[in-house]
Amino acid sequence: MSETLTRPETETVVQKEQYFSLSFVLSRVLNSGVIMSIEKNDQELKRLEKSIAKLTKTKYVSLFNSYTGAIHGALWGQDIRYQSSTRLNHPSDQERKFLEWLGISLVAEPHVKQAYSSISLSGSNLRDVDRLVHETGGEAPVLIVDFTELGFGPVAAIATNDENIWKKAERLKIFGAFDLQTMWTQEESEPELQPTAQFNYRLSPLVAACVKLTLLRRNLSS
Amino acid sequence: MKTDFIRKPLSLPSEDWITDPLAFLGGPSVIPEDVRRTNFPIITKEDVIQMMVSIQQDGDEVVNEFKEAYRNYVGANYAIATASGTSSLHLALVGAGVEPGDEVIVPAFTFIATAQAVVAAKAIPIFVDIDPITYCLDPTKAEHAITNKTKAIMPVHVHGLPADLPALRSLVDKYSLRLVEDASHAHSASIHGQLAGSIGDSAGQSLMADKNFMVGGEGGIAFFKEKEDYERALGFLDSSGIDYRMSWIVAAFGLSQLDRLPYYDDIRARNAAYLTNALSETKLFSGPHVPEGYRHSYNMYRIKLSPERLGLDDLEDYRVKDAVQQLVNHEGVYAREWQNVPIPGHLPFKNRRGFGNGYPFTLSDRQDFGYELNQFPETLKMLRNSLTICRELRTPIEYERIQAYALAFKKIDENPHIIRQLVEQGNDLSIPYERDARLG
């Protein structure tokens, strides 16, 4: 165990006021036994997915262990894959690099639909989340919500009303929703949903629990 | 309070239980239903306190502290903490210099992530059959699979038994290839005292929920022997923009669990040795073979069935296995199949669509990728004639529980006529690898 009990001089992302509530919720999750298996910890992930669906007023939510994972899910869900092209509004350097790595070209033509819109939530804009979500409404078929700046590590979600996008995005994940629903078989009657390249974008239930608590308490944050 | 605490103890076992009627036929179970649950990871006050400490610290420092502590434990020169085992394997491959279109030799029997990591590196997985005794990659067959496109060999330490790395090292040296370990099952496993993860040129290791050493739910770590390979992996993270970072929350849990890993390892080894010895007293069952100088970590414990030793060799081996599984499950031991189809028979490798439009498989000149299941006879045989104990032996279970497991197998061994009856009653059971492929 670490010998240092407190490190007050270190800059942290998690605010002091949150220490107790987050420690409490993490202890509860640890004590509940959910991290002992994929099947059990899936319950914790579903709770966060429901919260995000409510927040974004969308039907389908898929969690990822990073913003780039969520980008991959959003693109894959729309069949934007190797040798495809798409458009993004003001792509960041990281987004450009990641799409290039995926073999996807970025185009500027305005008639090409924007692949996704995104918002990044942090301690400072959390109370404005409803407005931020509202402002992105209808811009793209998928909304990516990046929670990484909340301070729990890389975590993001895609939110969409298109079931097919969600299904395909889940198929991109090793241990995605389908793997659990089908008793770990990956057989799929719909050829376009069959798994191909897959990445482990699965989120830790401990991280999910922290994000969920933070969303629940967003109106109490200073 | 919602808790994982197990409140009811097992009764002390008795050798008399072996002669009780089988639970399948209405007799008493060796392990009654209300005491079957096992628990892992064990959460202690240290885990909770560490979490309270880490929450006050800078997240990157927590991850770094964990990474350095575990790197030191393993004895690797360089490490990158990741969000998953798959991503750690991806980095291990890229760090070792695997480039788009290269071929990487992997065993046909493993978890699908081994091969998917090769695809993530935009390389072509070439599957090779396993050794029939160790169930790990067969070095002789691996040599036959080497072509001028081969860049690396990535053995898997199946269930926690290190693959034959000395033989594979000779092979990679002979052909100027790289040796990348998939050490995802092999925390604390070793060859002549050198820990898995530190032996190859690089290694990837899962730290997720089903492992002997898990961080908080999902995680992984990549190890590198050479600075150049480590820096190549870091360079890839920068150039691709991909975010594979581990969360500090899971790293915090890893820190406190790491302190207790050797203790859990010792209990697991003690229990496995007890069970292997007990199975050696049966005719039907035998435990894993561990070569001299090797340390098995027993993330899973595969039991081989030898029906011929009970006069059941006129029956289909997979039907005998299925009958035994039913019987032993009724006795309270959850032995089961882990994997039923070699990885090349899973959809992603049957379809070969990769990143889209068949990439990276389209980079290959091959007409035949060698993915037909009949290329892997030893894997198929193993899938027909063995059962696996997973979580139930991973946890530091009580002495009386491992005694009870042993008694359950001995009880089945005493009843070959019931096994025969069950098989002869017949059903529409198909051969494991003709069913839908299961991930685990």
From TrEMBL, chain A:
Protein name: DegT/DnrJ/EryC1/StrS aminotransferase family protein
Species name: Fontibacillus panacisegetis
Lineage: Bacteria, Bacillati, Bacillota, Bacilli, Bacillales
Automatic annotation (TrEMBL), chain B:
Stated name of the protein: dTDP-4-amino-4,6-dideoxygalactose transaminase
UniProt GO molecular function: pyridoxal phosphate binding; transaminase activity
The organism of origin for this protein: Fontibacillus panacisegetis
Presence of keyword Transferase: no
SUPFAM superfamilies named among the record's database cross-references: PLP-dependent transferases
Top-level taxon of the source organism: Bacteria
Keyword NAD applies: no
PANTHER family: DTDP-4-AMINO-4,6-DIDEOXYGALACTOSE TRANSAMINASE (PTHR30244:SF34), TRANSAMINASE (PTHR30244)
